[in-house]
TrEMBL record:
Signal peptide location: 1-21
The enzyme's E.C. designation: 3.1.1.-
Source organism per UniProt: Aaosphaeria arxii CBS 175.79
Keyword annotations of the record: Calcium, Disulfide bond, Hydrolase, Metal-binding, Serine esterase, Signal
Family: Belongs to the tannase family.
GO molecular function: feruloyl esterase activity; metal ion binding
Protein name, entry field: Carboxylic ester hydrolase
Length: 582
């Protein structure tokens, strides 16, 4: 590839917008565009580390058929006073495609995104960071401990929020200089779900003035409570020494969906109002219903918190044919899960999954040798306890011997306090983001079986209370809605649609946030499309929290209604802890 003279390029950029991808995509041009030492406090770019290569007509992403031409760049930086080298990836769209945007995609589980191509569909430059712990090659849970008892705090803060904030601090001026647009505003976006949603929230909370628009789905925040919650269903079973057949649990879920589906005014296989289900449906009515599941050999899957999702002892699980009727003990397990964790004094420690959500965290393991159902500890929760609480380099708890509900509360409390300003990610004062004009679009599948939908509701409530303490209910809702909107997605599961409920899912979130940020089009509803079932293709305009959907008469669209009892059913106080839980 030919070498370009950076002065010539700068002149070209200054006079016309005629620079081609080949002109810009050179090592020397990128080196010249790097923010100079001293311009970003504490971060120095390493010019010698730069690579740049033009890529033409490439297909990126899994489903996309579109092709893109872009400059593929790597560069490293160091934190002043440390002898670390942190590699970064960047993708710059070819000049005609660039629309003055910077975009970061969230990762999932314990991984940041390692892909920098996510901005291409939006005409945005983008980046990815190795975060100082080799995050392109390792997930954070593999790095959190140097060894037993020794926390890697650099990796912890990097994963929690600093690595992505530093990437944006570097990426924006680099993008401006790359395209010769030093005085032009670069609209800055973050989009993610699950841990990616948490990462988005971390950027709003810690680097708020850097971002114009953030789309955060089902955020895996309130990390201590959220992770220990994954151990709660198994603890109910261990405490009661009763392990329900998974088929009985699946039947409880299916029968609950069938019973509660009509409460929202339309029978479409979807509980659009889990609050009405919670308030009006009694699981005990299912006792005696029969269930049947055929024998199967399969792979057990977790819900995306850890790359190592299989329980210890192997990948395959065997399930015999299950044929029986729902018992009071089965219902007691399900009811306990949906009620949420309380300590031995009856004080609430955490919220739970909405009634009708899949109960897969409660599924026991079948012991093929003894033909009994046994304890199964989801590694999503067990690994958090071993590594982050007990500080032991083990991938899961081996058992729950002597573990009580109070033990879970204690684990939550230790985790909350230890990681309060890192992983917890629930800082509710969003003043820097709000006052610099940022817009936040937050959504959550109402039947999420991994991260409870109520966990998002609670954060919305915390932000409102902290940001607008003096305003009335209506005033504070309106004020918040100007820059932070939250939508529950009826029936949806964790960061996607739900095979048990053929409901809608929002698919145009980036278009919505771009319109809001760049054209001032403030949403009031959020379009979501049904992707399966009899209503496949239907577009539903989701209701902005705290209004709730209700079909009335034979209307083809639901209304968004005010319902105080519903909202109260989503409102919690966690008095098992001495500290406030935001
Ligand atoms: C910027 O700082 C880095 C590390 O501190 C150093 O290696 C590099 O040479 C500096 N660059 C310039 C242009 O001074
Ligand atoms: C990329 O595709 C465009 C349009 O199809 C074509 O004109 C161009 O030659 C292609 N470039 C390369 C390097 O293949
Ligand atoms: C960027 O370049 C690196 C190094 O050649 C390569 O491994 C990577 O696949 C490229 N990425 C894209 C998105 O083109
Ligand atoms: C990933 O690890 C390999 C060695 O295992 C190393 O050569 C490579 O540089 C690492 N990649 C990054 C981006 O750090
Ligand atoms: C860390 O602690 C666990 C549990 O006690 C033990 O099994 C493991 O061997 C220890 N690892 C090291 C490197 O000492
Ligand atoms: C933009 O900034 C870069 C880095 O500071 C500088 O090298 C370049 O000349 C500037 N370009 C324009 C068009 O001002
Ligand atoms: C629950 O419903 C799903 C589909 O909606 C079905 O595949 C599954 O077999 C049902 N399970 C039980 C136990 O009825
Ligand atoms: C549910 O029904 C059972 C059995 O009829 C009853 O004991 C229980 O009190 C009911 N629960 C609620 C919340 O009404
Ligand atoms: C389940 O058990 C019932 C009662 O024993 C029996 O009538 C039924 O045929 C069984 N169903 C299957 C699918 O095995
Ligand atoms: C489970 O046990 C049955 C009967 O003892 C045996 O035939 C079967 O091979 C076992 N399956 C596995 C996967 O171990
Ligand atoms: C668990 O509790 C039993 C009985 O209360 C006690 O004997 C045992 O030492 C305890 N085990 C542990 C590991 O604390
Ligand atoms: C929402 O969907 C409706 C019906 O498909 C459509 O008319 C409307 O333009 C969409 N709104 C937005 C903001 O995309």
């Amino acid at each position: 590839m030919r070498r370009s003279n950076p002065i010539t390029i700068a002149a070209l950029l200054a006079t016309t917008n005629a620079a081609s991808l080949d002109d810009l995509c050179t090592v020397s041009h990128v080196q010249a565009a790097l923010p100079a030492n001293g311009t970003i406090l504490g971060l120095n770019l390493l010019a010698d580390s730069v690579t740049a290569a033009a890529v033409y007509n490439a297909t990126v992403g899994r489903e996309s058929t579109a092709t893109y031409s872009y400059c593929n760049v790597t560069a490293s930086y160091t934190q002043v006073g440390k002898d670390n080298v942190i590699p970064l990836k960047f993708i710059f769209p070819q000049p005609p495609d660039f629309q003055n945007r910077w975009y970061l995609a969230g990762g999932g589980g314990f991984s940041l995104s390692s892909d920098a191509t996510g901005g291409l569909p939006y005409g945005a430059a983008s980046g990815a960071t190795s975060a100082g712990y080799d995050a392109f090659n390792f997930s954070y849970d593999e790095k959190v401990l140097y060894g037993n008892g020794s926390i890697n705090w650099d990796a912890t803060y990097a994963f929690s929020y600093t690595a992505l904030g530093e990437l944006t601090k570097i990426g924006k001026p680099l993008t401006q200089a790359f395209y010769g647009l030093n005085d032009t505003k670069i609209y800055t976006y973050f989009e993610g779900c699950s841990d990616g949603g948490r990462e988005g929230m971390s950027q709003v909370q810690r680097w708020g003035e850097e971002y114009d628009g953030v789309v955060a789905g089902a955020p895996a925040f309130r990390f201590a409570q959220q992770q220990v919650l994954h151990v709660y269903p198994a603890t109910i079973e261990a405490v009661n020494d009763y392990y329900p057949p998974p088929c009985a649990l699946a039947k409880i879920v299916n029968a609950t969906i069938a019973a509660c589906d009509p409460l929202d005014g339309r029978t479409d296989g979807v509980i659009s109002r889990t609050d009405l289900c919670k308030l009006n449906f009694n699981l005990s009515s299912l006792i005696g219903e029969s269930y049947y599941c055929a024998a199967q050999t399969g792979t057990s899957l977790g819900f995306g918190f850890s790359k190592r999702q299989a329980p210890p002892g192997g990948q395959t699980s065997v399930q015999p044919a299950q044929n029986g009727t729902i018992t009071a003990q089965d219902v007691a397990v399900a009811q306990g899960v949906y009620d949420g964790l309380h300590d031995s004094n009856g004080k609430r420690a955490y919220l739970s999954w909405q009634i009708g959500s899949d109960l897969s965290d409660a599924d026991p393991t079948y012991n093929n040798a003894t033909s009994v159902w046994e304890l199964n500890i989801p590694s999503t929760g067990g690994e958090y306890v071993t590594k982050f609480i007990q500080l032991l380099d083990l991938d899961n708890l081996s058992d729950l011997n002597n573990v009580t509900y109070d033990t879970l509360v204690e684990w939550m409390n230790i985790g909350m306090i230890r990681y309060l300003d890192s992983l917890q990610t629930t800082l509710p004062d969003l003043t820097p983001f709000q006052s610099s004009g940022g817009k936040l679009l937050h959504y959550h599948g109402e039947s999420d079986p991994s991260i409870p939908a109520a966990s998002s509701v609670h954060y919305w409530q915390s932000v409102r209370d902290i940001m607008y303490p003096g305003l009335s209910d209506a005033e504070s809702r309106d004020a918040l809605s100007d820059w932070y909107q939250f939508y529950l997605v009826p029936g949806a599961a964790h960061c996607g649609s739900n095979s048990l409920q053929p409901g809608p899912y929002p698919v145009d979130n980036m278009a919505t946030i771009i319109d809001w940020v760049e054209s001032g089009v403030k949403p009031s509803r959020l379009n979501a499309t049904v992707s399966s079932g009899v209503n496949k293709g239907e577009v539903q305009a989701l209701c902005q929290w705290p209004t709730r959907p209700l079909w009335s008469g034979n209307s083809s669209e639901f209304e968004c209604v005010e319902d105080l009892a519903s909202v109260e059913s989503w409102t919690y106080t966690f008095d098992a802890f001495k500290l406030p839980v935001y």
